[in-house]
User: Fold this.
Amino acid sequence: MGEPVTRRWQAQRWLIDNVIRTVGMDFDQNRSGYLAAPCGPEAAGDFQLIRQRIQKFADFAPAFEAAARRREERARAAEEQGRLVAARESYFAAAIEWAAAQWPIAENSATNVHYNQRKIECYGRYGHLADHHVERVLIPFHDQALPAWLHLPTGYQGGRLPTVVAIPGMDSFKETSVWLYGDRWLTRGCAVLAIDGPGQYESPVLGVYVTVQNWADAGRIVYDWLAARPEVDPERVGLVGNSFGSLFGTIAAGAEPRYRACAVTAVVHEPGCHTIFEEASPTFKVRFMYMAGYEDEAAFDAFAQSLTWEGWAERVRCPYLCLAGEADELSPLTYTERLFEALAVPKRLVVYQDARHSLGPSPATMLGPSPRTLVADWLVARLAGQAMESERWYVEASGRVVRTPY
Assistant:
């Protein structure tokens, strides 16, 4: 498959370059923030230099590749010298940077495949040196496989653990799901299966593309794989999804009733996804066409109508949490409210006043409940069997939470 071609991408490429030159690499979302955060302070300088270097769209891959090469060289030198903590920190950062270099490449080119392999090898070296168990996983999926990393908490000595299936968004990847230090799941005693589901990052390199049915199948297949692991308590498995992972996680929860909780953030809940594909940056549509295996825009437009939670949300059987920005520019809040009307389970919708899609810095997210902490504490409580009331929370810009029954 070649690189997808879309009308808006061709017509607006010059505009994208000018916007990047004006506002920087985070022109469409807080990309540098969510890539840097899992790496900890060691990689802060890398991202400062990357921000400075990226002045147009064509700069993304070379800038991240250069940073990844430097980090990998630093990691190998530290490992050879026996400085293993420093080595694992740099291997982790290198893996994130190699993956970030893949983002602008919307085809399985030799460059994309090379970046993907470097990412896997660097993350594997990190896993070998990590302070907890990290295992590369290829879950059989039809005639192919879903790639994942299985993480067990530091000090794990046996027994069955509550487990989180972490689903990233369109522009993110499984390696960012567990942070280098202070991870919110491992520190709460949970195992984590960080996956690239159908269409996500490594999966299209392996020939596994997005469809609603593939995500429904993935929900069942991933659960069955986890239930067979001796480290996993099959009665305490939950889903967490971010951005497009909010759609994929909802479909997976609807398809597999044995999940005990589902938490989603930074939502993409508009059936057909018109806003994100036709009104936001054209990079989103190009990326998703690659994820779905389409070159032709008209054929993809027809396919996009199948992207919906409708028929799946009604089948969800576990408690459901959703955190959304009131001013989400990629998926209007009205579609999330429609989804909540379809849910027949204990549910909580948390809306942050004036926050945009990413739930990044805004008065409500900074002064109100921390989105990451709220999700982690809620999911762990549900996996522990704690009951909840159905509520709608409105987090005001002051940080005050207004609670009403749902």
